[in-house]
Amino acid sequence: MCGIVAAVAQRDVAPLLIAGLKALEYRGYDSAGIAVLDHGDVHRVRAKGKVREMESLYLANPFPGGTGIAHTRWATHGVPNEANAHPHTAGNVALVHNGIIENYASLRAELQAGGHVFTSETDTEVMAALISERVESGMSLREAVTATVRGLEGAYAIAVVSSKEPGHVVGARHGAPLLVGVGIGEHFLGSDAQALIQVTNKIIYLEEHDVVEITRDHVQIYGRDGKPVERAVHESELSTDAVERGEYRHYMQKEIFEQPRAVADTLEARIGPNGVLPNIFGVGGDELLAKVKGLHIIACGTSYHAGLVAKYWIEEYARLPVNVEVASEYRYREAVVPEGTLFVAISQSGETADTLAAMRESRRRGYLGTLAICNVPESSVVREADLKLMTRAGPEIGVASTKAFTTQLAALGLLTLQLAHQRGLDGERHADLASQLQRMPSMIEKALELEPQIIELAEHLIHRQHALFLGRGVQYPVAMEGALKLKEISYIHAEAYAAGELKHGPLALVDEDMPVIAVAPNGPLLDKLKSNLQEVRARGGELLVFADGEASMDGNASRGAILRMDGGGEFIAPAVFTVPMQLLAYHVAVLRGTDVDQPRNLAKSVTVE
Ligand code: HGA
Q1: pLDDT in tens, 338-363
Q2: Is the CB of 97 under 6 A from ligand 1?
Q3: Which ligand 1 atom minimizes the distance to the CA of 100?
Q4: H/E element holding 576?
Q5: Active-site residue, from 2, 485, 487, 530
Q6: Which domain holds residue 289?
Q7: What mean pLDDT, rounded, does the chain reach?
Q8: How far is Cα 32 from Cα 96, in angstroms, rounded to an integer?
Q9: Lesser CB count within 10 Å: N end or C end of the chain?
Q10: Average pLDDT, stretch 538-556?
Q11: 54 and 201 together in one domain
Q12: Would the pLDDT of 605 be above 80?
């Protein structure tokens, strides 16, 4: 999603801004731009496409200046082109924006009626025009920004400069993240810590409705009431190495292979021989969880699939009812909340706009409490939740989520175990689940050894237009995740079905051109699944089956292949069987030559609704 970087320094800031934008490239975007103040002039360069295309325009015609703003845009209002790329300028002002201004049409009409001429189709440009007018009428830049954001509906993180105030950048946030980087004799704004880690690890996280003014020597933050406020400075633990690609061809491949470590980190010091350790969800966590009578899990995309796996787990082992819903639906529907329900938000970035809004909405719906499962400790979702369990996946750069998913499963496994234990799960069963969970990293490690065979399987899919993924029970969400990965990065249309549903419609699609990928670990539903696979085989469909080591598959894959692996036990098998799904999608995409880490039209950290 859009990225913001801004700087005030003694040195020329354009190279710093461009380096910051490159660090934000992983979020996915379609155009980029920078604007720098130089003795009352505003130099601006923008380009459709990658940061390096904008950078070469800059290098062909570089400009000095110690105050600047920069942006990568993921278009919401207006096509991706140079005119719609940020920064937008109006009079003395240049501005970058992340979010959506919902009342922009009426503001734009009023400004046009007053004679303002717009040069883009964006919602963003109205803010530049309003702030510029106010500065012209005598307000300081900060006053003009404060007055302008008060009249906005929607979501924004902005960074603004005015040629009337060189040496100052003003930022504001509401519904989209913005943070301050504190340097020595220089200050920065960024939409995440990744953008700033090359210049500082000292970070101040702004809160909703904050307005901030940075100069070389000062940072002043103003709260919702316009009065100065103090916010703590944090030391970010990110390192520039954590975002190096190393020997891997893509970040996604690196992140798939980091999963044993990431899952082990997520479990570390949270589970022991007797099960989950006390209060890993935060102070008072165990007490609150003991009162839970049901759960609503809210998430988007891959995190939603992790929630679906948890539904099977929690209902089976803890015997608590669980409802899982995508955040964009939940937030606009009058969900019934039975007494004693826990609201669980799952989000990799903790800034996913729909999930965050759903969590805020949940506050007025009478939940017992909120629990965040998230990868970014300082994120809004984590800060606003009552209880939290951090996944420790480290920075995830590939837009298609991989290690975030398996670490979410590890965290949800801990939650399941704790809830089940508190509700009297039989001791032997509890011990078995706990030991399976502890084996999750090594079983994932083993599954990664399948890569050479998966590369061969990938050949089966590269010229296909469609694919079906099948699973039953807790493996159905794994099939959904497999289909999502394939769609996201290879652009092959893929659908997942609960295998028992096949005959109720999708079987009509099956012929020799329709590959069917089945997740088939051992378990009580394996025989049922095998019958469903026979239905595919009888229609000439090509079967790619991922099966547990010894299970007989009755020659099911007469066309296609059976790939044997070890799911590590019924409880953790969803996490382990996810690995070949990820590798398959990855290698199909590589063979098809797509932009694996930044697939078209997609963005990471989806901070717009
Ligand atoms: N609405 C603005 C910014 C979009 C955005 O925040 N994307 O992440 C535009 O379309 O330019």
Answers
A1: 999 999 999 999 999 999 999 999 99
A2: yes
A3: 1
A4: helix 573-592
A5: 2
A6: 251-438
A7: 93
A8: 10
A9: C
A10: 76
A11: yes
A12: no
- Is 374 a catalytic site residue? no
For the CA of 77, the closest atom of ligand 1 is: 10
Which residues lie across from 370 on neighbouring strands?
A: 343
Mutate to test the pocket of ligand 1, among 46, 122, 153, 602 (most ligand atoms within 8 A of CB): 122
Query: Burial of 453 by CB count in 10 Å (0-12 exposed, 13-18 middle, 19+ buried)?
Result: middle
Q: Which atom of ligand 1 is nearest to the CA of 101?
A: 1
- 262 and 212 in a common domain: no
At 518, list the tokens. Answer: 């089945």
Say how far apart CA 161 and CA 36 lie, in whole Å. 9
Within-domain flag for 15: yes
Exactly one of 50, 311, 403, 604 is catalytic; name it. 604
- Whether omega before 87 lies within 30 degrees of 0, making that bond cis, reads yes
The finding on whether 120 has its CB within 6 A of some atom of ligand 1 is no
Asked if residue 123 has its Cβ within 6 Å of ligand 1, the reply is: yes
Same-domain check for residues 202 and 117: yes
Type of residue numbered 382: V
Same domain (yes/no): 322, 402: yes
74 lines ligand 1 (CB under 6 A): yes
pTM here is: 0.82
Q: How far is the CA of 308 from the centre of ligand 1 (A)?
A: 30
E strands in 56-178 = 67-73, 88-90, 93-101, 154-162, 169-174
Please, which pLDDT band fits residue 176 given cuts at 50, 70 and 90?
A: confident
Rounded to the nearest 5 percent, the helix, strand and coil shares of the chain are 40, 25, 40
Q: Does the annotation mark 300 as catalytic? A: no
Q: Are residues 459 and 481 in the same domain?
A: yes
User: Residue 556 pLDDT > 80, yes or no?
Assistant: no
How confident is the model at residue 529, as a pLDDT? 82
pLDDT digits (tens, 9 = 90+) for 566-593: 999 999 999 999 999 999 999 999 999 9
Ligand 1 pocket, residue 2 CB under 6 Å: yes
Q: Is residue 609 part of a domain?
A: no
Tokens linked to 215:
């100069």
Q: Are 469 and 533 in contact (CB under 8 A)?
A: no
Residues 213 and 537: their CA atoms lie apart, in Å, by: 66
Instruction: State if residue 608 touches ligand 1 by the CB under 6 angstroms criterion.
Output: yes
Predicted local distance difference test score (pLDDT) of residue 35: 98
Please check whether residue 198 is in contact with residue 212, taking contact to mean a CB–CB distance below 8 angstroms.
no
> DSSP string of 206-256?
--TT-EEEE-SS-EEEE-TTS-EE----EE----SGGG--TT-SSHHHHHH
Q: Is 104 in the pocket of ligand 1 (CB under 6 A)?
A: no
